[in-house]
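Posting this for the archive.
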Amino acid sequence: MADYIYLLENRLSHAQRAALLAVREVARAKGLTVFLVGGAVRDMTSGSPVRDLDVVVQGNALKLKKDIEKAHGVITGESEAGQALYVRFPGGVRVEIGSTLTVTYPKPGKAVVKPATILDDLRRRDFTANAMALSLNDGSYGLLMDPLNGVADIENRELRLVSNYGFIEDPVRMIRAARLMARLSWQMDEKTQARYETGKQEGYISAMDEFHRGYETEEIFHEEDPLRVLTKLEAEGWVKHLFPALSAAKANVTELEKLREVQGQLQMQGIHPEASVANFPYLTAKMAPKDIAALKKSFARQGFVAEIEALEDEAKAFATEFSGKGAATPSQAWKLLHSAKPESILWVAHTSKNAGIQNKFKGFFTEWAQAKQKLPYTLMQEMRIVPELPGYNELLDKLFFELMDGKLGTVEEMKAYLEPYSPPAPPPPVHLRRPRAAKKDAKPAKSRKKAAVEENGEGVEAIAASGSDEVSASAPVLAKNGAGAKAAAPAKKAVAPVKPVAPVSKNGAAANGKAAAKAPVKVAAKSVAVKAVAKKAPAKAPSKAPVKKAVAKAPVKAAVKKAPAKAVAKKAAVKKASAKAPAKKAAPAKKVAPAKKVAAKAPAKKAAVKHAPAKKVIKKAAKKGR
């Protein structure tokens, strides 16, 4: 179903779709169900060009005559017996509107028809490939009905009789079979071929009535390649039963070939003329006027005869307009060609000797259409002109005509032309930051932790500086105590300033050992308590003003923030000793200050080990002071 909806939308020309829509609307208004049947369904399924449209309604189609005329359809003929209307819609579209019927044949060639359903109508047709229908009704649009498996015969490219008595009941089917084989290059299946040969030998064709004789003769002129079909029918011996004066030998073969070439060029540019009117003069070129008149009179559609006789006058009127001021520019000529009657365009393009007209047709066939390739789709995208905008297709048409006339040769000209159609740029996007939700029991950031540790380090230094001589003397014990190390872990790099003092005295080793032995355990207790007292340390500092001054003079204070707790106690001892010693003896400690950068990379354990000699210096200095 979806496949045939696609075919209905894409395999039919614009004019054919418009004609089909008009018939659907008329049938809907009358409350009739409508179906596309016959050759149109066969050609869409097989991929062949759709030449005409066969439509049936479940009701009397003859009652739709006035409504069809109101829908811009021209009635070219009708059949009372078959309850059918032959209509010509704008664009040269031929439509046959019939009724769903069931047919019986009491005698060969004598049909008796009765109203029936669509399935009964399909079962009374000639060949299985023609016994298919597509629903055009709401709710079932595009639904395929194929009760006789015609799709399989289309795939095999075979003509198969619906009824074993098909050629006997309606002998015109033999002529139709030969015509379809010539057009489609198909073959009959084995049984149908045998019955066909039997019908030729038995003379079934003698039962053909006058209406079908004229109908089948007219169908030759409606063929895409009428000369080929006429030659095939002559070879099968059917032309003498249709119209004996008609012959392929009396046709103008050269002009017919040129006409087909021009028709193909027009079709490539979107103009689809019905060539049957133009074919008639060349197929009857060498016939006598009396025979031509008799041939026209035999046609089932007398409206077709009227079109043949009006062709010359309509072509002259179009040629005058096409060569006038109204078609001076390529765009004006293009618009006129797409609005005029296709059959008149075909005849003028083929027969006119006017150089100006032929030059315009040459440009129409070769040059003008190339302007579509120059449409600036990229530039339009940059200027925010996209297909979603209203009037986009109309703008493309305007651009196409401007480019065709050569008015937009540069990018700047195109920009200037498109500027009025460019919508304003959208405002920049606004990014709103959402406030972060407050976290419960949020952990402090690392930077804040570091600041707190630094404050604790300053408190430790103040407490160490304000301690007694006993604390200063016992500082090395704290360096080896594990609990003290945990309390002051954040300040490991303060050892750096003291490291170069190691070589100061070699004779103080014994004194160093004694100092280490005398160190009381109380210092560890004090150092553990430093954590809690760290923030209160500045309050104790004013009680010992002399110690404060010593700390202020010492250059080690600047590095206290990075020093570990192990070094803090030792440094406090050094500061205490240097405070008691004379100013001259304290000078060496200042000289070694530049060694901070090298000592900063040393591990804490080495610093603690190498720091021992500093105690000798302190003891020695104390002895000299005494």
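The radius of gyration is 55 Å. Residues 450 and 490 are 8 Å apart (CA to CA).
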